[in-house]
Amino acid sequence: MTDSLRYSFTKDERLCHKKRISALFDEGRGFTCYPFRIVWKSATLDVDFPAQVAITVTKRSFKQAVKRNLLKRRIREIYRLNKHLLYNDLNERQAQISFMIVYLPKTILKSAEMDTKLVKALRRIGPEYDKFAKNTKEGDSLRHDTAD
């Protein structure tokens, strides 16, 4: 298999640094592709991968850790199998980003539904990056976008 089709999810692909995560929420851009909110930031990463990701499910929506962990496992698995779509987009743009996937609903959705929506969100990151790059060249600032 080529590197773009490796279905592993290594430590280098995970966003773990607290400073990067806080910078992501302070300076990052985002969009909602229900049931997910994607918050991303262009970053220079010290790894061979074009993206680092963190996944979160709010404690406010799911009080029991068992349910939060179930959702994070499902999202992580869907991302692992479909990350090559994002990597291809970012490699074409020669970009590196760090981003976070936030699960929004207060109910547990079916895996098939989550799969289609997460793939849609991953495909949208590339065009969002292009909008950001275009606006920064013009000197404009682009804030959080909630359009679907």
Polypeptide structure, described:
The protein has 148 residues and is α+β, with helices and mostly antiparallel strands. The protein is 45% helix and 18% strand. The protein is built from three helices and four strands; from the N terminus they run αβββαβα. The protein has a four-stranded mixed sheet, sandwiched between helices. It starts with 17 loop residues before the first helix and ends in a 10-residue tail after the last helix.
Give the key terms.
single chain, 148 residues, alpha+beta, four-stranded mixed beta sheet, 3 helices, 45% helix, globular
Structure described in brief:
By secondary structure, the chain is of the alpha+beta class. The protein has helices spanning 18-27, 65-93, 111-138; strands spanning 29-33, 36-42, 51-57, 97-103.
Break the fold down into its secondary structure elements and pairings.
Blueprint: H1 18-27, E1 29-33, E2 36-42, E3 51-57, H2 65-93, E4 97-103, H3 111-138
Parallel strand pairs: 3-4
Antiparallel strand pairs: 1-2, 2-4
Helix pairs in contact: 2-3
Strand content: 15-25%
Taking the sheet with the most strands, its summary is: 4 strands, mixed
> Can you tell me the overall shape?
globular
> What letter string, H or E per element, gives the SSE order?
HEEEHEH
Helix fraction?
40-55%
Overall pLDDT metric: 89
- What is the first-to-last residue Cα distance? 34 Å
Strand order of the largest sheet: 1-2-4-3
Radius of gyration over C-alpha positions, nearest whole angstrom: 15 Å
Number of distinct helices = 3
Structural class: alpha+beta
